[in-house]
Design a protein that fits this description.
This protein is α/β, with parallel strands linked by helices and 265 residues long. Helix content is 34%, strand content 17%. The strands form 2 sheets. Strands 1-2-3-4-7-9-10-11 form an 8-stranded parallel beta barrel, surrounded by 5 helices. Helix 2 packs parallel to helix 3. It is globular, with a radius of gyration of 17 Å.
Length: 265
């Protein structure tokens, strides 16, 4: 069953979990991490968001591809508790590029999708050089019996230099991801909270049969620009107080986005 369908407009609410055990900003309580995630899940559900994604964004500085078992265990605990109280679709991303760990959590907690970075081609991220992982990742998915979990893939992702692939366009990158069996394509701005290039997103949308998601920078003021060529919108910063990702959810911002969308339906 498709989580994101071509032609439909799905808003995906981001839950930034508090820093997990073993990371520099960990506060010493897994219960606190779970409680915050569950409260945000409750808010999203109350205000009409039917798809959410968990992400360990507070775990700075990020590891490159590999995380310890304590991260996988903690994210599974969060996911299982969130799953109990949310009837919609749930996804997960484990930074940075720890896509196999994300798949393991998704399988254990019966989640529907993961967000995977570094799926095709190489790029230089904050964490260092990140090479493509599609072959290993999808073989791992097959190995653990998780083919039902969809993999949405960032292309030319934010917080990265793409000079290595400067001669490969966004559309060509998307074609490679499609050929390598991606379930959906995510396009972003250059960093968290910054919007994707409208022209690039439009060109991408019309070049692929896969669902296209806008992965950063969506607001009530600009969502109308993307409605005709995006199928999903991952929204984090805009839903927070003062539109800053580290702050608490602000229900008024959730309502504002849905009101803006309804005006253009």
């Amino acid at each position: 069953m498709a989580i994101i369908e071509k032609g439909k407009k799905t808003v995906i609410g981001m839950i930034h979990t508090l820093a997990l055990p073993g990371t520099p900003k960990y506060r010493g309580s897994v219960d606190e991490i779970v409680d915050k995630a569950c409260k945000e899940t409750e808010t999203y559900s109350e205000y009409g968001v039917n798809t959410i994604i968990l992400e360990n964004m507070h775990d700075v500085p990020y590891m490159n591809r590999k995380v310890g078992p304590e991260i996988t265990a903690a994210m599974t605990t969060v996911a299982l508790n969130v799953k109990k109280m949310f009837s919609g679709n749930i996804g997960i991303q484990i930074l940075a590029g720890a896509n196999e760990a994300a798949l393991a959590v998704a399988l254990a907690a019966n989640l529907q999708f993961i967000r995977a970075e570094g799926f095709v081609y190489s790029h230089v991220a904050d964490e260092g050089l990140m090479n493509a992982c599609a072959g290993e990742l999808l073989r791992y998915r097959k190995q653990i019996g998780a083919d039902h979990i969809q993999v949405f893939t960032d292309i030319k992702k934010k917080h990265s230099s793409h000079s290595i692939t400067d001669d490969v366009s966004l559309v060509e990158t998307a074609k490679a991801a499609e050929f390598f069996l991606s379930d959906g394509l995510i396009v972003t701005g250059s960093s968290t909270g910054l919007p994707a290039d409208v022209n690039e997103a439009s060109q991408l949308y019309h070049s692929t049969d896969l669902p296209v998601l806008i992965g950063s920078g969506i607001t009530s003021s600009n969502i109308a620009e993307y409605l005709s060529f995006a199928d999903g919108f991952i929204v984090g910063s805009f839903f927070k107080e003062n539109h800053y990702w580290e702050n608490k959810l602000d229900p008024a911002n959730i309502e504002s986005l849905f009101n803006a969308m309804s005006k253009h339906n």
